[in-house]
Design a protein that fits this description.
Largest interface: A-B, 62 and 62 residues
CATH superfamily of chain A: NADH Oxidase
Shape of chain A: globular
Number of domains of chain A: 1
Strand content of chain A: 15-25%
CATH topology of chain A: NADH Oxidase
Number of strands of chain A: 5
Strand order of the largest sheet of chain A: 1-2-4-3
Structural class of chain A: alpha+beta
Oligomer: homodimer
Chain lengths: 170, 170
């Protein structure tokens, strides 16, 4: 089987200091923007942060965001409700983009973790203040990423659970 | 470059009558269950529908679900709020699983489209009634899928949009 980064993907919270080239970042963002969205409304923006002081402050968004602290790059995904033609779908669209980015990061041999923000109000407000976001721009999630010495190629056991599968009826 | 199904994925709404083997369905579901979720809460279930009468009724969920009508398989992804340890994250988790499934379908050479349900109340109620779902089980989205004669291997132009990318600040 060809490289199976859907099954290889795992949450990686330890990163090397090695910087990440802009071509890698571009590829990750392009993967995000290749995700489907409701009626192709593409409601997202991406704030790519490499400034260590800003990353330090991002890592204090919530108890789950601590792993960002030592990452060379953190990407904040935001949803723009002014672009919404299908009301209420922006978090769904942002989630698909975020997952695409995690898979692309895996494909490129780096490690990353999804740091949930939406729908926790305190986390959203914290980031809205930190980045002085316009009112239509809603923080959705952060991805902290970098090269890692965690072994990403080892076999994962299947996460298939037959008790979650139903045929033709509930 | 190896097969790049993140960029190849597209919405496919026309399917051949050819049946889809259970091994293919298993692989798609396993990809869905390989998605990350908040605190690994894995709040999803999957209803795999091949019964044509049920598919016919699913295709009437909303104006966007019409393409399901001629699909040999439709999968309904649901979120179980009784499994939620991180309140409000179930739609985010279900979206990541749904995107993984679309990518796996692309990898396997089939075509599919994401039919949005959540957060539209009428669509959720319609499916809750159709499948007589327990109250903790919330319809999230449907995927209609099948073999297709749409050309899935042609080069896609990049969907990268530099106006959506910000560095270190908004």
């Amino acid at each position: 089987m060809i490289q199976d980064f859907i099954r290889q993907r795992r949450s990686v919270r330890k990163y090397l200091a090695r910087p990440v080239d802009i071509e890698i970042i571009h590829s990750i963002l392009e993967a995000g923007m290749s995700a489907p969205s409701a009626g192709n409304q593409r409601p997202w923006d991406f704030i790519v942060v490499t400034d260590h002081d800003v990353i330090e402050r991002m890592s204090k968004t919530g108890p789950n965001s601590l792993p960002a602290k030592d990452a060379p790059v953190v990407i904040l995904i935001t949803g723009d409700t002014s672009r919404e033609r299908y009301k209420g779908y922006w978090p769904v669209d942002c989630a698909a983009a975020t997952e695409n980015m995690l898979l692309e990061i895996t494909r490129l041999g780096l490690g990353a973790v999804w740091l949930g923000v939406h729908p926790v109000a305190e986390r959203k407000e914290y980031l809205q203040n930190l980045f002085q976001l316009p009112s239509a721009i809603h923080p959705f999630a952060m991805i902290s990423l970098g090269y890692t010495d965690v072994d990403l190629n080892n076999e994962r056991e299947s996460r298939y659970d037959m008790s979650r599968v139903h045929y033709n009826r509930w």
